[in-house]
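lol ok so funny story. i was supposed to be doing the assay writeup but got distracted and ended up predicting the structure for this chain instead. priorities right. anyway since i did it might as well share w the group, maybe its usefull for someone
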Amino acid sequence: MGIVVGIDLGTTYSAVARVDAATGRAEVIPNADGGAVTPSVVAVSPEGNILFGTEAKEQQELGYTDTAAFFKRYMGQAGYTVEMGGRDFTPVDLSGMLLQGLVHQAEQVSGEEIDGAYITVPAYFKNSEREATIEAGRRAGINVMGILNEPTAAAFAYGLNGKDAHQKVLIYDLGGGTFDVTLAEVDGDSIRILGSDGSHILGGKDWDDAVARWIAEQFEDEFGVDLTSDEEELAKLTVAAENAKKRLTKAPQAVIPVSFEGHRGKYTLDRETFDDVTSYMLQETSDIVDRLFASFKPAVTWDDVDGAILVGGSTRMLQVHDYIEKMSGKPPLGGVNVDEAVALGAAIRANQDASGNARPQLMTIGGGHAPSGAPRMLIGGKRITDATSHALGMIAESANGERYINDVLIAKNTAIPAANTHHVTLRVPRSGGEMEVYLLQGAERRPLDNDVAGKYVFSDIPYVQSGSSNIDVTYSYDENGVIQVSALQRETGNQLIMHREPVPDDMSWTDRSPKENQPQGVSVSGEVYLLIDLSGSMDGSPLRQAIQSAHDFANQLDLSMFSIGVAGFGSYFVNVQSLTHFDNQVHGSIDRLNNKTIRDQAGYGTDNPLGNMRSLFSGDPGAKLVIILTDGSWGGERRAIEDAHQLNSMGIDTIGVGISAANAAFLREISSLQDLSGLTDLSHLSESFSKIARVISA
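and the output, tada:
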């Protein structure tokens, strides 16, 4: 059996720790160079090899551009990539590469196989960032036992100093790229996290960048040359700034030599200047502490805090110590190694059960079992109660139906695991229903003032006798702070089928009144025209699948409420079936779309058919909709856009669905209901048409 470890996956430096089974004490596994921490840098060498840690950091210091650092700041952000060696890497890719290197190195140094790990994250990480961290661990081949908030891990490490008295402590965690502040109660048996706040874009790197800007300004004032215009020189400048910052923790000043384009400068940075150019960031940490204190009812003050634990390499800056002592009236609490505390705490968590006791493998000595009544072999192990860092809610209508609001289900600072349920009444058509839930992290009333953390779609909701179903939607935070969403239909007692979809780029509909807003289409009665591309490029499978999709669509509409018309187009427009409520006429006309006579009438080109649609709808009240399926570019696209807008102004909505070579931008232009329009492929065409039918039915 191998060991389980704690991994501090840091923005600038990372560490791996284990628990010694003989002593029950957590210890850092040194890296290959004998150091406790390893640079969180990965690189691709000129030969194409993956480098990590010290080797990659050395490449960075030489100005080599195929390196990546500080990628932890971008975890969970879609679209962010770093190019190295001609390839694009996501933050999950880069973190996975780093984790794989850390684990392999730890196994070589310790001589033991690693069976699992707890990986730490900033307390203020949101759901996407936590899920991305877990995924990175899995890509590295790690059995991810769980993730642990960094301040919580530090609280475990604080327990190593042997103080069992009840204390309320502030954990001030300023790392290389993130800042967390957590209030916790620690005693001999337990750690209770009361609340957290922070920023994942504030850390030692920002102090480095401020110093680098100061150096660049001195150089430009002296020589009229901008150092920051050269990417390689900028990388070297950032490293020089970091080294100067570190020297100021032990010396009153740091001398920084700079050579560029034949110019040589030498600049002296003293502590007063350093504090001056970085003071606004220290103030930002102070504001976050104040925000955390104010979030409690009643509000907490420094007088309520027994002391502050400093964690993270950036807390070595003397200005941080001065700030803590000034605000609290006492020096920071000792007994915690700022570089190792998080990894040590994670190792303790990895080796304990939910009650804080040692896992069975630590209760053995020399291959045998510990004697009866022996103390648990895990120093620092405590029962942990963590808390949410973000409130959790959903987009809902206000009580008067006038606007969309954030309906909070789980409040910030709630102990986790946590769950709460929201009741929804949903109209479900006979063909089955669908429900979309937009998850929000934050407590602001306006939905878009929060993080839209996910879109959860519940499909195939069974019809019930009344047509109105009662759905219980449950939100939960698991012990890792990761969100779970589920729904249960009361009438059947069954859990609903759920899948996640990307959050749309355009969420502006949430700022409109629900009474004005129809993001899901139309009412439960009306007229629908299916307008199908019959051009030559649709021959064969495309047209056969289009016909099947049209049948699936018609099968899901209640023809006592809706009338359906069918038309085709190529070079010319062909009205195959006028609006009808009769099932056999609808399905018969859909089949005739592949009739040779109709195909010949349509021709094999593709021209704008929308100008023909205005006269095909009745003047009766009710919703009116044109669903357009096409597979390529049209002649007269500008005119088509104008015709679509004219249809919309007449109260006729349009949905454009494209396959093959269709133009997504053009489809958006001719679609008034853009949530339901867009590109798909043949294998998902029926699904797209069926979804449109379910939405307009509901």
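The chain is about 30% helix and 30% strand. The chain has three domains: 3-163+332-384, 392-511, 526-697.
back to the writeup now i swear
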